[in-house]
Every structure is written in C-alpha cells, then in structure tokens.
Amino acid sequence: MSNRETRPHPKISIRDLHKRFGNNVVLSGIDFDVFSGQVIVIIGPSGSGKSTFLRCCNGLELPERGDITLCGSPLISKGKPLPEKQLNQLRKEVGMVFQSFNLFPHLSVLENLCVAPMMLRNLDKATAQQNALKLLDKVGLTSKAQAMPGNLSGGQKQRVAISRALAMSPSVMLFDEPTSALDPELVGEVLQVMKMLASEGMTMMIVTHEMGFAREVADVVVVMDGGGIVEAGPPEQIFGAPQSERTRQFLNAVL
Ligand code: ADP
Ligand code: MG
After folding, report:
1. Listing from the earlier edge strand, what are the strands of the sheet with 220-225?
2. Could you list which residues have their CB under 5 Å from ion ligand 2?
3. From CA 235, how far away is CA 219, in angstroms rounded?
4. Whole-structure pTM value
5. Distance between CA atoms of residues 108 and 28, nearest Å
6. Is residue 138 classed as helix, strand or coil in its secondary structure?
7. Is there a contact between 179 and 210 (Cβ–Cβ < 8 Å)?
8. Of 57, 85, 134, 168, whose CA is between 20 and 30 Å from 241?
9. Residues 29, 230: contact at Cβ < 8 Å?
10. Closest residue (by CA) to atom 24 of ligand 1?
11. 137 sits in which H/E element
C-alpha cells in the first residue's frame, strides 16, 4: 500500500459518488482515493456497479451527486462535469481499455495507435508512428503494425487496444474486464502486459475476475456489492482475512 505521507495528492479522488439509471440506484455514495503508481483491482458480482464506477472516473458517465478530482483538477464537481473543452483536456490523462477491444476496424494496427495522438496531442505523423512502433514493440506486436484488426487474435487485439491507450501518454489507465472476452489460452498474454505496466509504475484501476492476478499485482483490492464498496484492502486481507461477510460470500462463489 502507498504511503500517504509521501504521496499527499491522490491521482484520482472520489467523494460521495451517487449514480442512478432511472429508479435503479447503481452507485450509492462511493469515497475512494487512488495514489500515484497504485494498482487498484475492483472485484464484485455482476451488476454491482463496477463498470459504472470506472466510467464515472473518466467522465463517460455523469453522476447525480459527488466529486471526482483527476490529477488535482476537478473532473466532476457536485455532480456537474467540467465544460466540454476542459473535460476533453482532462480525459487525455485517462486511458481506457474495454472488454470488447473497440479498435477501429477499418484502420491498420499502426493507424489505430496514431489517430488520437495526431488529433488530440497534435503529434505529426512521423512522431506518432515512431511512438506507436515503440509501444507495439513493448507489447510484442511489431510484426502486426500493418495488419488489420480483423486478422488478429483476441489477445493480440487487446494488446493493441492497450498500446493504443498508452499512445496518448495517459497518467492513469482504466481497464474494464480486459480479459473477459478472451479464450482462456489468450488471457495470460494480456495479463502479462498489464503486469509490465504495473511494474513500470503506471497508476491503474482494473475491474477483473482474475483473482490470481488481483492477488499478485494489486496494491488495493476493492470489493463492490450493491453499488457500494463493501471492503477495500491489500490482497492479503481480502483473500486471506476478509473483514466482511459479503466479501467471504463473493470469494466463496468465485474461487
Ligand atoms: P457491473 O460492471 O458491476 O456488472 P454495471 O456498472 O455495469 O455493473 O451495472 C450496474 C447496474 O446499472 C446494473 O443494474 C445495470 O443494469 C445498470 N446499468 C448500467 N449501465 C446502464 C445504462 N447505460 N442504462 C441503464 N442501466 C444501466
Ligand atoms: Mg461491468
């Protein structure tokens, strides 16, 4: 766990976050801080609000109530988002990876990595391509630079999606079940890339059902149920000595 004395300013600070869809209360008062370099793994049953929580953290969902501060700037204040222009500015700091990859199907792998940096970070094409090739090398996909997404395996697609997010040089990465759509034999290569990012000090929030990964890589495991945080603590606590009956029930069901 991070030492709060040496890291006084959270990368992401979430206070009193409330979100509902119609009458369905999905987040009911979440308070949480993510410090620089921390790996936060969020677990919990389906429908407990994990995706909504993550999506609020980059302004993809708008809460009714609450405050979110990103890298010291308010992203959402009293349930109101920043003006669009500033919101987009701040969003560049948050990379997001989805279960369904969401690559641009009509663009090559290399082009997938270059679009956002050229449009949003004003990089020229040569620089964007140079950066992209470095990132592809990092995730072991240099040979796929000219390939189209449709010709890649799921594991390769997800590694491209991760490097595409990294191409924006985000200061935080959010992952929503990045391995849930993959055949079992392809899960490892994606988790490996995420472990590498963790070891490099990337700040990450990861929703996953991969309990082995959570145990090994998380600084803090957050257990969600019914739109709230049931328990948060180091993996030794969550998996070894859970404080909450709900945590025990959930782990019994999945382990
Ligand atoms: P989890 O990721 O833990 O499975 P979600 O955040 O996806 O949970 O969903 C929590 C609840 O919010 C569910 O009841 C879901 O049906 C509802 N929900 C999520 N997104 C929407 C949406 N866009 N519109 C309406 N209801 C939604
Ligand atoms: Mg979800």
Report:
1. 94-97, 172-176, 203-207, 39-43, 220-225, 228-233
2. 50-51
3. 7
4. 0.95
5. 42
6. helix
7. yes
8. 57
9. no
10. 21
11. helix 125-138
Is residue 128 within 8 Å of residue 114, measured between CB atoms?
yes
User: Cα(222)–Cα(87) distance, rounded to whole angstroms?
Assistant: 26
Phi-psi label, residue 226: left if phi above 0, alpha if psi -120 to 50, beta otherwise = left
Can you give the C-alpha Rg of the chain in angstroms? 18
Judge if the beta carbon of residue 163 lies within 6 A of ligand 1: no
For residue 180, the 8-state DSSP code is T
Using CA atoms, how far residue 234 sits from 9, 173, 176, 223, in Å, is 20, 20, 20, 11
List, in order, residues 6 or more apart from 68 with CB less than 8 Å away: 12, 13, 14, 15, 17, 56, 57, 74, 75, 76
- Binned at pLDDT 50, 70 and 90, residue 9 comes out as confident
Q: Are 64 and 55 in contact (CB under 8 A)?
A: no
Q: Distance of CA 13 to CAs 48, 92, 140, 200, 244, Å?
A: 20, 17, 34, 22, 24
CA of 21 to the centre of ligand 1 (A): 8
CA of 162 relative to ligand 2 center, distance in Å: 18
* Contact indicator for 44, 250 with CB cutoff of 8 Å: yes
52 lines ligand 1 (CB under 6 A): yes
**Complex ipTM > 0.85:** yes
